[in-house]
Design brief:
The complex is a heterodimer. By secondary structure, chain A is of the alpha/beta class. Chain A is built from twelve helices and twelve strands. Chain B folds into two domains: about 180 residues, Thiamin diphosphate (ThDP)-binding fold, Pyr/PP domains (Rossmann fold), CATH 3.40.50; about 110 residues, Rossmann fold, CATH 3.40.50. Chain B contains 13 helices and 16 strands. Classes of the chains: A alpha/beta, B alpha/beta. Chains A and B meet through strand 2, helix 3, helix 5 and helix 12 of A and strand 2, helix 3, helix 4 and strand 10 of B.
Chain lengths: ~350, ~375
């Protein structure tokens, strides 16, 4: 991957700046990764059609991407894109959608586009809530998560979107976060080259709405960085060697209130302690130590600690999960036209 | 595709044949009675002419795929019935806002809800006019024969292309499912959308008196922005009161100002009418029989048959109301176009209603009896 001056990407690919996204939003990161992928592959932007639905993610291409873009109705981007791609297969068709747009109202279109294996790259920006409309619960909100419509905690379980789309038949499936920009850009490039339905879920920060969801009580200006670090803390990458030199103490009260007692209790092990944000557990204490099993035993009888979590507990897996080949929809339609072609009537 | 000449075919097949001759090369639909034969015929015939048939996951996806294909350059169409037509309203509203040409066929069945799923009605005529959200003007055609399923489908495409608007073909279960003579001409008149004449696309604004902008397509290098949000002439989103008013005014006026060109109706025995039967689609057929019978009996009765429901022919109805003593509106619902006739006739004559619910057509005698009663 070659890295060029940011101004080059802006002037070549971006129609209009500044964006109307909230400060610290992940959408800019995703637009950046997308245009770098296009540039690296030397795909002429005149050949690119971006289709989006309704929600913050829909605004990534429309109006900001300088190429053809179709900003459609809520959840229907994939159906519009399917029509355009089928009629003009030369269009490099990319759908930007969100978790509410793509997995909520548009969930049916998502699984059917994957089933057809129509050559469309779908980038689903997952901020785990309906950001534009005021932070309502989404089909991706974690169990127990606080949103404006789940004030007592989300009573529902979230979708595992990559598993869903993989089982529906997509031929390229990956999940990254806005922290993992290099991997994300590489993944978008792979998706754009896949002759079939490609799906990339991107966990994205929404500083405006996620502070409530993840209990980030600090200032709003520190929220974007904290959420990004939380994505790093709460995920692991498939196929990469796992570290086993740490664990998490989940406190009964605030981590600040129990930090001292954990520190005192573990003083004999000389661990490194740090308070971190975690998507599954909230604000907790991370304990770096080579003597994991002893530390675990030692913390068991500490009243202030609710539970001790292993490194992988509650974490979300990132990586490329599916890379395979199946008959592609548009190609099959053209094959059918060829097959019945002897009866062909002059247009 | 059928050859030019005479054929005995189903109304729905005639519709599909007309569509292909009008240049339709993309169809997306979802199974529903009584519109299925349109899909069946399209799925057979479209690949033969290099076109695409898609069965989508629902009617929302069907209209959406049609609109996506239209911006990629296709003359595109879908066909459905009442419940599916309801689901398509979101997409139809989007088509109005983005001025996307397409044809939507509603082979009407008897509701509300699943109702009498296999039986005909004319219950969606107001859904055609008012079903979608927002301010817009509808073009809706209504065929009364297998021949008109063919002819009006072609006209629907031509109007859609000319005015860059969705056009509705409001057929009904009777016309979709009867088999009768269809004459296919050697040549049909075809209208294509105005394509972009310069490198600077202005896809949502024009100085042309028609108020219909040129339509650039995806993949032509225009870097188009198409959005259902309020937009400027360039397509760039701008939700200010000024641009919203400008846009909505223009998309309505392009239809309203062309009303005399779009609006279409046929009169029978209207030289000296005392009683005028007003009807459309399947119910115009027994109405025609009843009027002929009345004429044989020496009664001054006539028939006014609408071939476009929307825009509504206000002036013609007013003229009829001034000339006749009574108007009888015959329709296969509880009385809907009745209200339009009452509005347009402005009290100039008495307006009677002959509704019919239950999924069956009026008989000639029922309508004849109504004419007789009105005459006395």
């Amino acid at each position: 991957m070659t890295v060029k001056n940011l101004r080059y990407y802006r002037e070549k690919f971006v129609r209009h700046l500044p964006t109307r996204f909230c400060p610290g939003c992940g959408n800019g990161v995703i637009l950046n990764a997308f245009v770098r992928a296009l540039d690296d592959l030397s795909i002429p932007q005149e050949r690119v059609l971006c289709v989006s639905g309704i929600g913050c993610s829909a605004w990534i291409p429309n109006p900001y991407f300088s190429g053809d873009s179709l900003h459609t109705t809520h959840g229907r981007a994939l159906a519009f894109a399917t029509g355009a791609k089928v009629y003009n297969r030369n269009l490099k068709t990319v759908v930007f959608t969100g978790d509410g747009d793509g997995a909520g109202i548009g969930g049916n279109h998502l699984i059917h586009a994957a089933r057809r294996n129509v050559e469309i790259t779908t980038i689903l920006v997952n901020n785990m809530n309906y950001g534009m409309t005021g932070g309502q619960t989404a089909p991706t909100t974690l169990y127990g998560g606080l949103t404006t419509t789940t004030p007592y905690g989300n009573p529902e379980n979230p979708f595992n979107l990559t598993s869903l789309v993989a089982s529906a038949g997509a031929t390229y499936v990956a999940r990254w976060s806005t922290y993992h920009v290099i991997e994300l850009t590489k993944s978008i490039k792979e998706a754009l080259q896949n002759e079939g339905f490609s799906f990339i879920e991107v966990l994205s920060q929404c500083p405006t709405q996620q502070r409530r969801m993840f209990g980030l009580s600090g200032t709003s200006s520190e929220a974007p960085q904290r959420i990004l670090e939380m994505f790093l803390e709460s995920t692991y990458i498939r196929g990469q060697p796992l570290k086993n030199n740490y664990l998490y103490a989940i406190p009964k009260k605030t981590p600040e209130a129990v930090f001292k007692s954990v520190e005192t209790k573990l003083s004999g092990f000389h661990p490194k302690l740090k308070i971190v944000d975690h998507m599954a557990f909230g604000r907790i204490i991370k304990i770096n130590t080579e003597r994991v099993e002893e530390v675990k035993r030692s913390l068991k009888d500490l009243d202030d600690v609710e539970k001790v979590a292993d490194p992988l507990e509650g974490k979300i897996e990132l990586g490329v999960f599916v890379k395979c080949e199946r008959p592609e929809f548009v190609k099959t339609l053209h094959n059918i036209i060829e097959r019945v072609g002897e009866n062909r009537y002059g247009v | 595709m059928l050859k030019a000449g005479k054929h005995l075919v189903l109304g729905n097949v005639a519709c599909a044949e007309g569509a292909i001759r009008a240049g339709c090369r993309f169809f997306a639909g979802y199974p529903i009675t009584p519109a299925n034969e349109i899909s069946h015929h399209m799925s057979i015939e479209l690949p033969k002419v290099g076109g695409f048939y898609l069965q989508m996951e629902d009617e929302i996806a069907s209209i959406s795929a049609v609109l996506g294909a239209s911006w990629a350059g296709a003359k595109a169409m879908t066909a459905t019935s009442g419940p599916g037509f309801s689901l398509m309203q979101e997409g139809i509203s989007y088509a109005h806002m983005t001025e996307t040409p397409c044809v939507v066929v509603d082979v009407q069945r008897s509701g509300p809800s699943t109702g009498q799923a296999t039986m005909p009605s004319q219950m969606d005529v107001y859904q055609a006019k008012y079903g979608a959200h927002g301010d817009y003007e509808v073009v809706a055609l209504v065929p009364w024969s297998v021949q008109e399923m063919f002819d009006l489908t072609i006209r629907a495409f031509n109007l859609a292309e000319k005015f860059r608007t969705p056009v509705l073909l409001m057929a009904d279960g009777v016309i979709g499912h009867i088999m009768e003579k269809l004459v296919i001409p050697e040549q049909v008149e075809i209208v294509d959308r105005r394509r972009c004449s310069s490198r600077e696309a202005m896809p949502f604004g024009t100085d042309d008196p028609s108020r219909v902008p040129e339509m650039p397509l995806f993949g032509e290098g225009y870097r188009l922005i198409v959005t259902g949000s309020t937009h400027r002439e360039s397509g760039f989103r701008d939700e200010s009161p000024k641009y919203h008013a400008m846009l909505v005014k223009r998309i309505r006026e392009k239809i309203l100002k062309a009303e005399s060109e779009i609006s279409d109706s046929v009169g029978y025995y209207l030289e000296d009418p005392k009683i005028v039967v007003i009807s459309y689609g399947a119910t115009a057929r027994p109405s025609f029989g009843a009027v002929k019978k009345a004429r044989k009996g020496g009664l001054e009765a006539g028939l006014f048959r609408l071939r476009t429901l929307w825009p509504f022919p206000d002036r013609e109805i007013r003229r009829l109301a001034e000339a006749a003593e009574k108007l009888i509106v015959v329709e296969m619902n509880s009385g809907k176009i009745l209200r339009e006739v009452e509005r347009a006739s402005r009290g100039c004559s008495e307006v009677l209603s002959l509704p019919k619910i239950g999924g069956v057509l009026h008989s000639v005698d029922e309508i004849y009896k109504a004419i007789m009663e009105a005459y006395q």
